Amino acid sequence: MEARPASSAEDRDGWSGGAAGMLHAGRIIASGSFSTVKRLPTRLDGPVLIEPRAFPDSRGFFQETYRRNVYAELGVDVEFVQDNHSRSTRGVVRGMHFQIGSGQAKLVRCARGAIVDVVVDIRRESPTFGQWEAFGLDDERLLQIFVPVGFAHGFCVTSEVADVVYKCSSYYDGDVERGIRYDDPDVGIVWPEGLDLHPSERDSAAPLLRDAAPEIPF
């Protein structure tokens, strides 16, 4: 199955792209006095865009970044077993990564700076196979994106430095780590203009989605 090229568009969050998919109506879930979070619409069916609540004052702010029972009501009903933290400078692109076997889900946020976070649907029987969607994540609005199994994930840094923190549903295992090219022409991700992108050697040498597809188990 060949990837379907995706279009791009900006939305009210400042940077969002990808082909049209199922929209999820934004809804607010409250649990106790602290956890009020909102699920925002996405174009692709599967990812969950989350807007947590922050409590600012003259000293700064406080925020709950995860509460399992509340997030489960929003569609993030997985058990996370590992937390990761990466720091990258402007223009660094990391992706597009996924895991074979049982796969790996992620809950991603940008704790410092700003990034464009991208997901690609790699579910071979999905009507949106090969389509992508992008989300602006930063340390001001504090949005989070849940990347379910069956999606490749990556991001590029648009601030001078960015700290990206994410939860994983499985432990790191180099034997199941896989990736597709961040600049795969069949997928057609539109990265922000004006950035000199800096991928790793591994990411630059990743296969195209069409070549990786036979190994994808989803």
List the helices and strands and how they pair.
Blueprint: E1 8-9, E2 16-17, E3 27-31, E4 35-40, E5 48-51, E6 54-57, E7 60-63, H1 68-74, E8 82-89, E9 93-99, E10 106-112, E11 114-121, E12 132-138, E13 144-147, E14 151-157, E15 161-168, E16 177-179, H2 201-204, H3 209-212
Antiparallel strand pairs: 1-2, 3-4, 4-5, 5-13, 6-7, 8-15, 9-14, 9-16, 10-13, 10-15, 11-12, 11-14
Detailed description of the structure:
With 218 residues, the chain is mostly beta strands. It has a single domain, classed as Jelly Rolls, CATH 2.60.120. It is built from three helices and 16 strands. Strands 3-4-5-13-10-15-8 form a seven-stranded antiparallel beta sheet, with helices on one face. A five-stranded antiparallel beta sheet has the order 12-11-14-9-16, with no helix packed on it. Strands 1-2 form a two-stranded antiparallel ribbon. The protein starts with 7 loop residues before the first strand and ends in a 6-residue tail after the last helix.
